[in-house]
Design a protein that fits this description.
The chain has 269 residues and is an alpha/beta fold. The chain has one domain (5-268): Alpha-Beta Barrel (TIM Barrel). The protein contains twelve helices and eight strands. α2 packs parallel to α3 (54-62) and α4 (80-89) runs parallel beside α5 (102-112). The longest helix is centred in the last third of the chain and has 29 residues, at 240-268.
């Protein structure tokens, strides 16, 4: 049976909706299983910077079976083989990094869509339930995939007016760290030049009705509001590594504070 949760999310976002999700950096089916029913709309696994091989990815995807959460993966590169393998495994969408020109956008779209919209090769093994739903998948294959591009250079921002006119992709993410690097300012992702480029992307995409996301994260109301104020409709709440680290470090600090108070109390007594 074809899972229609991706199509439902695409329709909701195309109608002007907002969604939320978390980054996934740990190659763990257990973490996926925990997140799958947490209430987020999507998870975004980062295969560009994390050690996700094909077998691990398949095990991770099994943990999402029956879940309402859409699994998305950032592939390592704008490569049609990597994109095809990810989609055939059953990822509901791909985030494609370093897409910084109209030509690169067209290449990304072509890898995600079957002909005549693109040139994705036919071979949907797992995503078509190992052949059981192949006929159904022929009908919905193009509609059941999120194609998300990541603009990560100032030159990409310069071309955004042309990019938003290219059909076939769904969302735009902005990569501010690499955007800073593209103008020789590594690590200065809050520089005025970067923010000017980011705002140009967001404003142009909003005018074209294309949802955007940014790498600002946080699970507080203020952090969510900051993303909304920027024009984001794809809201990132955090990353599994950060959530785990910050939670444990917060607990350790609470423990130290209590113990220090006890020691002061004992000394004072």
């Amino acid at each position: 049976m074809i899972d229609r949760k991706v199509m439902n999310l695409r329709k909701r976002m195309a109608a002007g909706g907002t969604c939320c999700g978390v980054w996934l950096g740990l190659p763990s089916p257990t973490v996926c299983e925990i997140l799958a029913d947490s209430g987020v709309d999507f998870i975004l696994a980062d295969a560009e910077h994390s050690p996700f091989n094909q077998e691990t990815q398949q095990h991770m995807l099994m943990a999402f079976r029956g879940s309402p959460t859409v699994p998305i993966i950032r592939v390592p590169w704008n490569d049609e083989v990597m994109i095809k393998q990810a989609l055939d495994l059953g990822w509901g969408g791909v985030l494609i990094p370093q897409v910084n020109s109209p030509e690169e956008v067209r290449k990304a779209v072509a890898a995600c869509r079957y002909p005549p919209l693109g040139k994705r090769g036919w071979g949907p093994r797992r995503v078509a339930n190992y052949g059981r739903d192949e006929e159904d998948y022929k009908e919905v294959g193009n509609d059941s995939v999120l194609c998300i591009i990541q603009l990560e250079s100032v030159t990409g921002a310069d071309s955004v007016g042309e990019i938003v006119c290219i059909p076939g992709f769904d969302w735009i993410f902005v990569g501010r760290m690499d955007m800073a690097g593209s103008i020789g300012k590594v690590g200065e992702n809050n520089s005025p030049e970067v923010w000017e480029a980011v705002r140009r992307i967001f404003d142009t995409a909003a005018g074209a009705g294309i949802p955007t996301g940014n790498a600002i994260q946080g699970m507080t109301p203020d952090a969510v509001q900051k993303q909304l104020d920027l024009g984001c409709r794809v809201i990132l709440l955090g990353e599994d590594c950060d959530i785990l680290r910050e939670s444990v470090e917060g607990g350790v600090q609470a423990f130290r504070n209590v113990m220090n108070s006890r020691e002061i109390s004992i000394t004072s007594g």
